[in-house]
């Protein structure tokens, strides 16, 4: 056995059989198991990095698939039965202990078992993803960071949905994803109102507004846009909405505006708030699309209340909760 170059690489070579022999990286498998945003880790019992935490990890054996190896290591090192659900990361690593490695990390769903150490580990437990110990291997750290980036939008949507649904029967809550779009609306309230004025003074559904002084229209519409922001921020409750819009309905009746035009004018304000928010968004991510849908829901709730109470006030209904 000698050495010869193939494609610029010096390799073992048998001159008798004219065959090259290759020294390839060792395949390593890693299981990334997350339950309720808690990551399963094991404490190593052997070198290297004895006593440090890592993902369940080990070498693939001859005769098993890379997925089978992942589930075997998970079972042996952490006592968990699982199901591979996806590939998270593939990393090339140079180890001073084992040489060149190819580390393949799969996301695994826990299907059974209780975290328990195995022959190569001394502990197995779940850690919150925002409070992880320092991981032994750089490939583990890279895989976890990749996974968190991949899941960030999904978690943000879930959190925002939970906050919204948690207060479904009461006042709208802050700290929702769509608050970012709400801030855009608040910062640009004057521009939104000017767009509405240009619309309401020319729209065929609101002819009674065509001759109204634009400054007067501006004051009225700006107050409504501001109210919307205050209501979403918790500074303006449903009682305030009822009182204001019933009074608005009474005033418009006294001024001679047809009810249909009053409701159409409110609908146009709603339209311009919505379209302005959409024009400022970049809708190439699921997260951004969800933000828009969440904001739309909040706009609908506010203006449904506004039009209902304006109609009651216009029709002369007695205010009541």
Describe the structure.
- With about 325 residues, this protein is α+β, with helices and mostly antiparallel strands.
- It folds into two domains: about 1-155, Nucleoside Triphosphate Pyrophosphohydrolase (Alpha-Beta Complex); about 180-315, Histidine kinase N-terminal domain (Globin-like, Orthogonal Bundle), CATH 1.10.490.70.
- The chain has helices at about 65-80, 140-165, 180-185, 190-200, 215-230, 240-255, 260-280, 285-315; strands at about 1-5, 10-15, 20, 25-30, 35, 40-45, 55, 55-60, 80-95, 100-115, 120-130.
- The chain has a four-stranded mixed β-sheet, with helices on both faces. Strands 5, 6, 7 and 11 form a four-stranded antiparallel β-sheet that branches. Strands 1-2-3 form a three-stranded antiparallel β-sheet, with no helix packed on it.
- Strand 9 (about 80-95) and strand 10 form a beta hairpin.
- Helix 7 (about 260-280) runs antiparallel to helix 8.
- The termini are far apart.
- About 30% of the residues are buried.
- The model is unreliable at about 170 (pLDDT under 50).
Report mean pLDDT, rounded to a whole number. Answer: 89
Beta content: 15-25%
Give the termini distance in whole angstroms. Answer: 94 Å
| CATH superfamily heading of the largest domain | Nucleoside Triphosphate Pyrophosphohydrolase
Largest sheet: 4 strands, mixed
**Gyration radius, rounded:** 32 Å
Proportion of residues in helical segments = 40-55%
| Count of discrete alpha- or pi-helical segments spanning 4 or more residues | 8
CATH class categorisation of the largest domain: Alpha Beta
From the helix content, strand content and strand pairing, which structural class follows?
Answer: alpha+beta
CATH architecture of the largest domain: Alpha-Beta Complex
